[in-house]
Write a structure and sequence with these properties.
With 246 residues, the chain is mostly helical. 78% of the residues lie in helices and 0% in strands. The protein has one domain.
Length: 246
Amino acid sequence: MIGLISIIAIGFFLGMRHATDPDHVIAVTTIVTQQRSAKRAAMIGIFWGVGHTLTIFLVGCAIILFNLVIPARLGLAMEFSVSLMLILLGGWNLASFKQAIPGSAGADREHDHSHDHPHSHETLDKLDRKLGQRSFYQLVRPLMVGIVHGLAGSAAVALLILATIRNANCAIVYLLVFGVGTIAGMMVITMSIASALRFVGDRFQVFGRRLALVSGIISVAFGLVLAYQICVVQGLFGSAPHWTPH
């Protein structure tokens, strides 16, 4: 009984710690900078965590129960998908910042349609302009981002569990608790970002645009560095790729 309680406690707090990984925070920040509501930001964090947990649980269970071995090239490809996603999310934020600049074509269009679409300045690109006002889209986007991140980290989490927990049932319980901790951690992060944006009050629009610009630049830069590390240093497209889950 004490062993199970320890697994639950450790899994939960390590899950919260996992949510603070730089690539996770950067990715979710590019989305949350478009939100002022702490409640909506919390939902973004929750759905990111659900997507992340779903992938880690499915892949982790396959590794634990069937001793699944992930080839180095496949593992690198899963991590490479994260770098592409970071570049894409950062690019969307940079495009949003450009459209919001007074005098730009995007800003003029938003001004012309401000009465019909009062929140159009929050959209990121053409897809956002079409779907940005639909609640399902606002939740599906962080869900998909979380799923991609889960792909990159699932092998490392499962292998760590196998090295410390021999019982398969306990290992699966750990995966679930780890996921709950990740959801809680990301919810705290997204709510904190939204609260900081709300704190600046009337200056939110200017502050939000600048934060979107900074988060976009960091996201693109981090994604490019990660892509270089995976493709060149670790040899994703080479003849002898080498990969260490982390």
